[in-house]
Model the fold of this input.
Amino acid sequence: MNAQDPRDTGVWRPPAAEPSWFTPAPRLPRPDVRVWPPPAPEEDQRSTSTVPMPAVTNGSVPPRLPWPPPGTPPRPAAAPAPAAAPPPFGAGRAEPPAAPATRSAPERRGMPTAARITLQLFGAVALSAALLAVTGYDALSRFEKDNAHDVRQVAQGQEATLLNTRWRLLGVKVMSPQPENMAPGTVSMQVDLEGTALNEKGVYYSIAPPGFRLGDGTGRTWMALAFKQPDQLSPGTPGRFSLVSSVPKAVAGEVELVLWPNENAAAREIGQALRFDR
Done:
């Protein structure tokens, strides 16, 4: 056997002249290590005392009693409370909570894109229409407020000017003979008046006559229609209008002619108007 080199690390290598894979390497001797039983712990060198520490009280809390001397039997444990008898079968039992309803597959699916766009479009149109309606109603209310009716009373036989035309009442009378098929308790009235255009703006009454009404003293009115009117009006030339209306027979002797600028103003009773005494 070859001598071991002091610089050897513990792995034996065979001589270069005799290579072999089956020759085991020698093991170096190692010192013994105690594994069992484990070594005893070092002695605790700290000082100990068996004298109990006195209890510090302020006079209100009673001092704690010292530990019982050795040999004292332990105190018996308190007896457990008797268990309550179980309730009878079916009494006091709460019904199990109902399982939450699950949606079906069609409900869980989202709304199609086309349907959603259609609903949004209809909603926008409805909101726009509502906004226009509110705006129009507000504008109409303000117009009616700003153009509250102003009725001027005209004495019998006098003339009055209304929108570029001078008007004069010629007469109000009950028609004779009465038309056929009249409603019971009513009579037909004939009204004649004269209109003179003051300028070019007053000649259009031959095409669109003003609004005519017959009214009594209680505020009731009845429509009067022109069955005769001039074919053409010229500034400074009088034109004659003949009207017909049906009123209750009881007020035939007291109704008066109310003249409005146009039929719309007469229906709404807004703007200026003329009321002729009889």
Remarks:
- Strands lie at 150-154, 159-161, 165-174, 186-197, 211-215, 221-228, 238-248, 256-260, 272-276.
- The radius of gyration is 61 Å.
- The CA atoms of residues 172 and 191 lie 5 Å apart.
